[in-house]
């Protein structure tokens, strides 16, 4: 191993900042999963999972809660804020993190679809819908009252807490 090589590292965590994790290998077979379990687990039309070997995954702050969504698999999440964080088959050597929980999800594009039996037919329409930014959606009064309580998209000291 050469000494000046940058070790690979991607970080992520939950919305409230109680749980943080790191990946020390690039995710492979990043995928959308349209199955009904993934829809329910993330509360969305599909989940996007970024798998890495378990040896390349570590929790770096806090301990997540987990739910055995079947007799074969667990899903980890933050018990404080509810962010879905992982999916893992109990007997697999990989663990998938939810792509939205990564600090830089745009660096990890999906390469395939799974669970297509659950694929929602209106996904085909998405690119044609009218679009606006978050600020455009807020009223003037909401903009004045707005304070972001979400953990920032990078590691922070252990005593980090959101602005009030
Ligand atoms: Zn949280
Ligand atoms: Zn699924």
Q: Point out poorly predicted stretches.
A: none
Question: What small ligands are held by the chains?
Answer: zinc ion
| Count of individual helical segments | 3
Mean of residue pLDDT values? 95
Order of helices and strands, N to C? EEEHEEEEEEEHH
| Sheet having the most strands | 7 strands, mixed
Terminal CA distance: 46 Å
Proportion of residues in helical segments: 10-25%
Question: What's the CATH class of the domain at 10-119, please?
Answer: Mainly Beta
Shape: globular
CATH topology of the domain at 10-119: Metal Binding Protein, Guanine Nucleotide Exchange Factor, Chain A
Folded structure, characterized:
- By secondary structure, the chain is mainly β.
- It has a domain at 10-119: Metal Binding Protein, Guanine Nucleotide Exchange Factor, Chain A.
- It has 3 helices and 10 strands; from the N terminus they run βββαβββββββαα.
- A 7-stranded mixed sheet has the order 6-7-8-9-4-3-10. A 3-stranded antiparallel sheet has the order 1-2-5, with no helix packed on it.
- It is globular, with a radius of gyration of 17 Å.
- The termini are far apart.
- 25% of the residues are buried.
- It binds zinc ion (ZN) (2 copies).
- The site of one zinc ion has 6 residues, from helix 1.
List keywords for this structure.
mainly beta, Metal Binding Protein, Guanine Nucleotide Exchange Factor, Chain A, binds zinc ion
């Amino acid at each position: 191993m050469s000494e000046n090589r940058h070790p690979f590292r991607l970080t992520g965590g939950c919305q409230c900042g109680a749980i943080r994790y790191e990946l020390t290998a690039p995710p492979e077979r990043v995928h959308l999963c349209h199955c009904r379990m993934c829809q329910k687990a993330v509360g969305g039309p599909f989940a996007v999972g970024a798998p890495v070997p378990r040896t390349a995954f570590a929790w770096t702050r806090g301990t997540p809660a987990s739910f055995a969504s079947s007799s074969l698999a667990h899903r980890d999440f933050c018990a404080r804020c509810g962010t879905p964080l992982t999916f893992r088959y109990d007997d697999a050597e990989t663990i998938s993190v939810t792509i939205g929980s990564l600090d830089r999800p745009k660096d990890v594009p999906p390469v395939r679809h799974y669970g297509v039996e659950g694929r929602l037919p209106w996904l085909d329409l998405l690119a044609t819908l009218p679009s606006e930014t978050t600020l455009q959606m807020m009223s003037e009064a909401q903009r004045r009252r707005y304070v972001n309580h979400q953990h920032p998209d990078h590691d922070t000291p252990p005593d980090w807490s959101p602005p009030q």
